[in-house]
Amino acid sequence: MMRRQRLGDTLFRAITRGFAFGVLLLLGAIIASLAAGSIPAFRAFGLGFLFSTAWNPVKDTFGALPAIYGTLVTSFIAMMLAVPLAFGIAIFLTELCPPLLRRPIGTLIELLAAIPSIIYGIWGLFVLAPVLQSTLQPMLIGSLGEIPLFGALFAGPPFGLGILTASIILAVMVLPFIASVSRDVFLTVPPLLRESAYGMGATTSEVIRNIIIPHSRIGIVGGVMLGLGRALGETMAVTFVIGNAHHIQASLLAPGTTISATLANEFTEAVDQIYTSSLVALGLILFVITLIVLALANYMLWRMGSQEGA
Amino acid sequence: MDTMLYRRRHATNYLILSMSFAATAAGLLVLFLIMWSLLKNGISALGFDFFTQNTPPPGRSGGLMNAIYGSLVMTAVATAVGTPVGILCGTFLAEFSRSSRLAMTVRFINDILLSAPSIVIGLFVYEVMVVPMGHFSGWAGSMALAILVVPVVVRTSENMLSLVPASLREAAFALGAPQWKVVILVVYRAALQGMLTGVLLAVARIAGETAPLLFTALNNQFWSTDMNNAMGNLPVVIFQFALSPYADWQRLAWGGALLITLAILSLNIIARFLANWSSFEK
Fold first, then answer.
1. Three-state helix/strand/coil letters over A121-173
2. N or C terminus: fewer CB in 10 A for chain B?
3. How confident is the model over B59-98, as pLDDT tens digits?
4. Model pTM?
5. ipTM score of complex
6. Is B279 at the interface with chain A, CB within 8 A?
7. Residues A270, A57: contact at Cβ < 8 Å?
């Protein structure tokens, strides 16, 4: 009887351990299969694949640079738009909001994160893009577009679709992630510190600047990186509004493409091996970039968590 | 007294706080605008035909019955496969090995998989299932979704199991129960509601996922219950129909978008209620 129970213990522990190993294996398997799939592309184009701007399915020449450029630029602009807004929301929820409303408003903001990517895409295409085309974009072209050099960023006709529209949609999508991580991090500031500062006569904005932000710096950076990781890999919403053009253009109003949008648009149409392999190679590049960003993000949030215990 | 300084400090404070108020208002406004356009454009499509007809060729009327069915089945299969895997892995992390090197690594990797781009998961399943099988299939779509379920369930079940008080476990051990009985009969039961919340959130996460289905389940415009074949599903149909030039198709896409969003938002709200309810009990 005892022996059977002990056998049950060993078995149960071994099974759960096996599944834990499974999660590790999964990551390894994803990297291995993408690497294997991208061998033909790297064999054909070498490392030049990363720096070439060619994308011609008819002649079978492919380069990753326009897609990498689009991915990085849209994510970067999205972060510039989303981070200040997310901090604003986090500050509102922790410092300003009456306690009774804290939960409902926090929940509504988090529901923004639950809306699927494709819904943002369809909304961006049919609702946001026409509005931007008739209002914000002509305004940018008329004002910032007139400045020498810098104006190149806002040159050309207002298409509606393009890098800027994709960035705005991405900003809305990562906003709730950054806001909720920042809120949680702000809440780890010991009430004693906060109250001491108020007791010395500090205003709310001084408490935020001198107590809360210094105390939660690593966590904030972690939250921002987490948002960046999401933005880099976001697919459907971007596919709808980016315009899908394999060019690098200075203007943010011009259409472009990202790695994920290229995959979503072209993968099922790619017939020959080198085309498919180039697309898988793009996927591998995307996965490696997001892995690095997410690993840094989680490391920072983990350090924040262990600091809290000390 | 330097009243200028006071006035400046209060002005700065007022400015910062009103900006944070404006940011929150902007966030809520976007949510409201999205819901409003979904209702305005989608509600007219949700008729009897919508649920009882298959996806039509351009220019004909129809519904999304085959796509709704495909989405339901693939989501169910993915949840059924992903949940046990996630719970067992979470059990290992919470019950057997809280701070071993393996547990730390698994936790770290799991958090990365939680935010990994879903389109890459689609590529992975394409490479390991669609290529060897030689065709797109509902099974491949379900597998891609199951891979997305696992990290969500691992994370929530580990958290929920860790919340179960140690005294409960000790009481069961004192009665002479072996660890596997303690975990299954005592700890799982105590954490049931929390784990259910995690599963609901995972379902909400995969229900609208489009990217991983593009290269796995693909799509099927006809009624098909064969999981071994390309399978219709709501997200991919919305994608194709929304980008088409046909007004009928676009109307159906809005209807599908409204349906998915309502389903996902209600799942999220139910999951939150469950979570609150269980935390009140403790």
1. HHHHHHHHHHHHHHCHHHHHHHCHHHCCCHHHHHCCCCCCCCHHHHHHHHHHH
2. N
3. 888 899 999 999 999 999 999 999 999 999 999 999 888 8
4. 0.92
5. 0.91
6. no
7. yes
